[in-house]
Amino acid sequence: MELFWYIVLMTMLAIYVILDGYDFGAGIIHLFFAKTEKDKKAITSAIGPFWDANEVWLIASGGVLFFAFPTLYASSFSGFYLPLIMILWLLIFRAIGLELRGQVHNKIWETIWDKAFGISSLLLALFFGVALGNVVRGVNLGIVTDGVSTHEPQYFFLPLWNPSFSPQAEHLGILDWFTVLLGIIGVISLTIHGANWIIFKTNSDINKQLKKVIFNLNFVLLTLIIISLLVWHIIEPKPFHNFIKTPWLWIFPLITFTGLFGLFKIKTFKKDGYGFIFSTLFLFGGLTTTVASIFPKVLPSTNDINPSLTIYNVAADEYGLNVGIYWFTIAILLVAIYMIIQYKVFKGKMDDIGYGDH
Questions:
Q1: Taking each helix axis from N to C terminus, what angle separates 2-32 and 51-68, rounded to the nearest 10 degrees?
Q2: Helix, strand, coil: what percent of the chain each, to 5?
Q3: 308 DSSP 8-state letter
Q4: Residues pairing with 299 in the sheet
Q5: Residue 299: which H helix or E strand, with range?
Q6: CB 279 within 8 A of CB 196
Q7: Neighbour count for residue 151 (Cβ, 10 Å)
Q8: Model's pTM, two decimal places?
Q9: Residue 275's closest CA among 335, 339, 212?
Q10: Could you read off the pLDDT of 173-192 as tens digits, one per residue?
Q11: How far is Cα of residue 227 from the mean position of the Cα atoms in its chain?
Q12: Which of 186, 13, 34 is nearest to 117 (CA)?
């Protein structure tokens, strides 16, 4: 049952990254590339009917984490308290940036909330990439100091950064050169993803420029992916051991690079949705490849005193996991119905929706 709920949790997180990821990317495009009011309206119209529903997947993932893996929930929400609060405030500012912008038709007012929306989207993309880096790198469980565990085996706490800015320090921080690298990859990936969504859902004049942006950013992304794979050996001496042990897992890296290399053809696609499909493949493949590389660990320990947290030592009781299936089945059916209706109602181009014109 632990494996079933782990797959459910990772699937929900992947859906969240794909769906709310294009919202973050659209916000970044809005911040840097939307120069005219027409372009800004096209971008907000593309995500307007979807962004709040997309965020539900994050809340739902937190609920599944709390129910199925309570020890991991308690450990993570305690240790990552500082960045989680920062993410919460960024989500708030992104939402009110979208909602309040159209309340007053004043240039200064609109500029303030445009910046709030764009900067919050940029920092959220960065922090979610950094979060993935922290999971890959691991944490100092039990806060081991000089070979002695000073707290319970599941407990840790991370400051924003450590003085050495190193992922190999005894006392780690949220930010170091490795997690920041993955954060930058997250920003570029979601920028590409958001640009593809805008192209898919609008006929904006900015779309031609966005195809050039995607093409150029894809070179940067490929370079950073190669660098991250090379330095991964510094963090994990045997980063591909699961893939060697279980060859079918190579399907996930294959999906990743299919999406990545497919994006290089963005300028030749005849249908606007193809780019979004390839960026979706890249995000899904990248997340599942990372998860598969550390399985069954869900939060590695960077010391030899306390064991890593795995899906088996953080899971809830077997009875609770079995009972939860019934409620999950009902919930997932309701969500599926809602999403089918939502995307059917708002299918096609969104240029005339006029989101935010209150």
A1: 150
A2: 70, 5, 25
A3: P
A4: 309
A5: strand 297-299
A6: yes
A7: 15
A8: 0.91
A9: 212
A10: 899 999 999 999 999 999 99
A11: 20
A12: 34
